[in-house]
């Protein structure tokens, strides 16, 4: 259930926080033909669902008055762009520019979720369409590769393309869309945090304002599709507190993981149950208070107790952590 933060029961080592969403794509994202594009209805729907959201990106153009009033103008929609402009004689592309927006040396955009819809201009220009899924896949890896991605802690949601009403262009649009679910599955197997939403199943030709862009009804339907993708990701990321090895049960194996990593500090530590960046007594208490949840506990009949000295030090660490305002570990998981 979604409440004022991300989830009523936060995922392990995460706290209720503002969800940073980066809308990424071409003119449908930019709002070229409809101010705010799908971003305006999506922001409203996210707020109504109780998901506190901040849109992030390199652009602030084409907002609605309501987006501006809420401070939600930012996005990374680029009208007329393709997946990779290095193969186009006339167009820019996301692939060769994405590092300038997500590079650590720049003011951090730091998204939690990236919403990607791109490829309509590739279809319009008949731009090596047989290789278009590969280009999209390379872009996905460039963003969320856990090894060297520009935003390795982000989750990318890939959306299929909405109708293309230009003569002869719907068939190649359909062909590209058909390749996307399998593409996402391949990247999930690589350990990349990515999922797919079938935006095309929401939007009909009657929802278009011209050949390539949605009308207000179509934009609201795109927003519905991405809202569903965001909610599905957040719900799938929910894990039991204290389940430090993420096997679905809080048991002795999780205690062992806590014990062996006690004293470590840093972001993203598996046994950091309270998200304060330290493995200490507070994380033991999270495990102890949820011991046995998720299934029969294996290997222990009662929650083990740490040494008395560690208990006192841990309680002091908890008090100090509560006085600090720190952000919890990041969630990890999958136009024209």
UniProtKB/TrEMBL annotation:
Occurrences of domain SGNH hydrolase-type esterase (ranges): 24-220
Alphabetically ordered keywords of this record: Hydrolase
GO molecular function, a single term: phosphatidylcholine lysophospholipase activity
Pfam families: Lipase_GDSL_2
Record GO biological process: polysaccharide catabolic process
InterPro entries attached to this UniProt entry: Dockerin_dom_sf, EF_Hand_1_Ca_BS, Ester_Hydrolysis_Enzymes, SGNH_hydro, SGNH_hydro_sf
Protein name, UniProt field: GDSL-like Lipase/Acylhydrolase
Taxonomic source organism: Posidoniimonas corsicana
Lineage: Bacteria, Pseudomonadati, Planctomycetota, Planctomycetia, Pirellulales
